[in-house]
Structures are given as C-alpha cells and as structure tokens.
Design goal:
This protein is mostly beta strands. About 5% of the residues lie in helices and about 50% in strands.
Amino acid sequence: MKKVMFNDCVGVNDKIYFFSNQGGLLGEYDTALNTITYLPVIINELYWDMASVDKMCLFENVIYALFLNGKGLIELDLENLNYCYYSLNTSCKPWGNYVYMGKYKSRLFIFTREKNQVIVFDCKKKTLK
C-alpha cells in the first residue's frame, strides 16, 4: 500500500474514513482487507482549493470535518455521500485554526485557537452559534 497523507479520521465498523491532504478526496480504509478506496464524492470547496481538513467527528453515520484553513465545516452523510458546506469565520492562519472539535449529545463544540471562541453546531437543527 502506498503512502496516503491525512490529518484526522473517523472509524465506522471495520472502516476508517479520511480526507486526503491533496484535494480533500474522501478515502475509505478497510481494515479487514487492508485496502484503501477513494469514494465517488468530490467536495468542491476542498477540491478546487486543493485544501484538506483538520479535525473530524462522527455523529449518526455523518462525518463532520473542519477545513484546515478555517473557512468551513463539511457535513457528509456516509449512506448517500451527500454533503453540505457551512461557512465559518475562523480563518486566521493557513492551518492550526482549531484546538479541538468534540460532540456532546447532538451538538458539536468547535474550539478555535486564534479567535478565542467556541462555535456550537447543532447536528439535528443544522444551526451554528
């Protein structure tokens, strides 16, 4: 298996999902078969900027990923590979804009580094605070 570069990943059953550092392609590592497959979804906001993601979380079979450059949040449904993009105003540097992203109940808590704020995304209501 050749090298694949990524910053973070999430696991579902025997599979690990990640966004590649080059173009943000969604990869799936099957731990049972020891194979990597790129899934047929292009995140336009990542692909055209040759961007990647920083932090990832999983909630009810949906991947949430923060852009490395602090510009946005991706919500990607693993069942149908549909995604939504939410713009965030947290970009201060090309990378390292976040300290942590964690989930509690149906909300994601995004801790920013430079802006000294916490952003809360409600996964059910699809709202940012």
